[in-house]
Protein: Tryptophan synthase subunit alpha
Amino acid sequence: MNDEQNPKRASVELLRAEAADELSVLVEERLRAGEDPWEFMEELPSVDELVVLMMRAENIAAYGGGRPSAARNYRVLRQIAMDHPELTRAVWRLLGSEPHRRWDAATTADAS
Structure:
């Protein structure tokens, strides 16, 4: 299947490239500010998480820009996962169903 037959895949690839560029800029800014990458790298979203957040922001802007309710936020993120299966893991991490980072797993285990 080529990109013409699957425009969603091409758009996700483009968004991933843009997200990777954005993350590299964020990392460089923080390094130039003297921050230790061991301390901040896990705070940053992954490329796919940033793509999901960009798609979510576009959806919010398209529907008036108001802050979505928790239910609407869930529906928007779930729809992104259904429309773009390759982003499903990132969506579930953002929704909190899956540990986001290493320290999340320890926190979740302690809470139960």
In short: The two ends are 45 Å apart (CA to CA). Residues 18 and 49 are 12 Å apart (CA to CA).
